[in-house]
Amino acid sequence: MKRQIEVLKYLTKDIVLHLDATGSIIRKPQFCTKSIYYYALTLQHPDYHITPIPVAEMISSDQGAAEITHFLNKWYLNSKLILHKEIFITRVEIDYSWALIHSTCIAFNKISILGYLESCWRNVNSDERSVDVDVFTVIHLCSAHVMHKLSQNLSKTFKIDKTLKQLILHVFAAILRSITMREINRLFILLCNVLSVEHSTEIVSSSLVELNDLVKGKIELQLENEGNLNLILIRKRILPLIVVNHHLVDISIL
What we know:
The protein is an alpha/beta fold. About 50% of the residues lie in helices and about 10% in strands.
């Protein structure tokens, strides 16, 4: 562990860690009733062509937040003892997991997820960033996992046109890149303008034009001859899904 942690001494820029777990590489013993997971806290090598460097590893049959928090707390304490200084982790990239979200927030920020979100809300809603804003390690959900989950939900739950699906995915990709609630709200309102009507209208057309500019990609909906957006069956069900995922995306970008 000492040699792994000493790698941090050579970093001059922001420290970004990746935390993930897998249960597919360790066979579960016959006497064990729970799956055994391998956890790895890795550091991206400055040369992106080189494999990330593991700075901490754990094998455990307990996938609860308490066990993961203990693992991260122990690593953080050892890092201070070995490096003789307190290090600040700029960002931690994690999987789509409540246990990882909660544990990372407690270990690196010493605050509950609710307190963290309240602070994030204050910071992103402030017109000017003051010098006394809360400084936390950013808990960032992997964008690939979020987009993959959204794509799965759209395909399994709704029978929608591929072009419409791409529109929704492009808008949510833009939401992931947003850094203020003003940007997020505008994107969400424009998407609702498109999805909440049965036929193409002037509002729909203008919303598509603005969405096209905001997501920086040309997306055109294939309208039917009558201008029907083919949203009659899904209109009442797709908006609640977007609202739910909208909140999850908020967590991932803050």
